[in-house]
Protein: GTP 3',8-cyclase
Amino acid sequence: MTAALVDNFGREVTYVRISVTDRCDFRCVYCMSEDMTFLPKSEILSLEEIEVIARNLVACGVSKIRLTGGEPLVRPGVVGLAERLRQLPGLKELCMTTNGGRLEEFAGPLKAAGVDRLNISLDSLDPVKFRELTRIGKLERVLAGIDAAQAAGFEHTKLNAVVMKGRNAEEVVPLVRFALDKGLDISFIEEMPLGVITEHDRAEAFCSSEEIRDELSTVFDLEPIDDDTGGPSRYWRVPGSDNRIGFISPHSHNFCGDCNRVRLTTEGRLLLCLGNEHSMDLREVIRSRPGDDLAVQKALHAAMQLKPERHYFSHDTEPQILRFMNATGG
Ligand code: SAM
Ligand code: SF4
Structure:
C-alpha cells in the first residue's frame, strides 16, 4: 500500500462513494427536477476508468466503497464492475445504495458478485404518496426488491428515508414498524439543500431528526446505542430488537470532525465534501496520462489538501450547492 490519504485536519480517508451514473428511473422530488438533463456519454467515466480510480484509491488505503448514483442499477455493466472491485486487495467492504426498483432482477447477481451490503431508499409505504415523491416510481416494485434482497441472502440491509413535512412526515411510525417486521435497519435523513427544486419549499418541509425522534417516542421506547460506525448516522434501538434506527442530521448535528469519506462524481471529479465544491478532476488525469497509476495517486494525495474542515448546511437559507445529489455520489 502507498501512503494513506490524510487531510490537513488529520482525518484519514478510508471510504469512497462512487456515482456510477447520474441517470435514474425515478425522479424523487428532493433529488431531481422534473426535466433533468443528464451528462453526455463522453463526459462520464467509463467502467474501466472507474476501476482505475478505485484501484488507486484502495492502494492508498480506502477500505470501503459504496456504489451509488443516480440509480446504480440503470448503468449497464454495473454487476461486472462490482465483481471486479470486490476483488481489489485491501478492500474490506463493497456496498450499494439503490432505489430498489430493479432488485428483483439484480439482487441475486449482486450477491454473487460479492456486494456485501445494500441500502435501499424507501420514503413512503403508501403507493399514491410514493408515486408523488418519486414522480414515476412504483412502490410494489421496491417492496418486491426488498424481499428479493433478503431472499438473495443480503444481511444488515438498511432502509433510507428522507423525511419532509407535508409529504411523508406522518409515515415515520409505519416505516419503523415495517423495518422492524422485516428485520431491517432504517435511517431517517434530513433533506439537504442540494440543487434548486420547485415542488416544495425546502425550509417549510424541513423536518429535524429531533422532531422525528419525538414522534417515534410516542409509540416506541427508544434507547440510544453507542455504535460509532464512523458515519454521519446516530443510532437508537427499540429494546428487544437487533435493528437500528438511525438519524442522519446534516443540519442539526455536525459530523464533519470524524469525516472519513470522499465522493467520486459521475464525470470523475473527486469531491472532498458533500456540502462544498472543492474537488479534483481525476478524469483529466487518467485521460491525459493513461496507464499512469502514480499520477493518479499523486492527484489523490494532492486532493487531500483541498478537503474543507466542515460543511455549512442550513435549512433556512437558499441552497449554497447548486449541483443535484444524483451526480455526486449521494
Ligand atoms: N438512487 C439511489 C437511491 O435513491 O437510493 C442512490 C442514489 S440517491 C442520490 C442516495 C440517497 O440520497 C438516497 O437515500 C436519497 O434519498 C438521498 N438524497 C437525495 N437527494 C437528497 C437531498 N436533497 N437531501 C437528503 N438526501 C437526499
Ligand atoms: Fe433517483 Fe435516488 Fe435521486 Fe430518487 S434519490 S431520483 S431514486 S437518484
Remarks:
- The chain has ten helices and twelve strands.
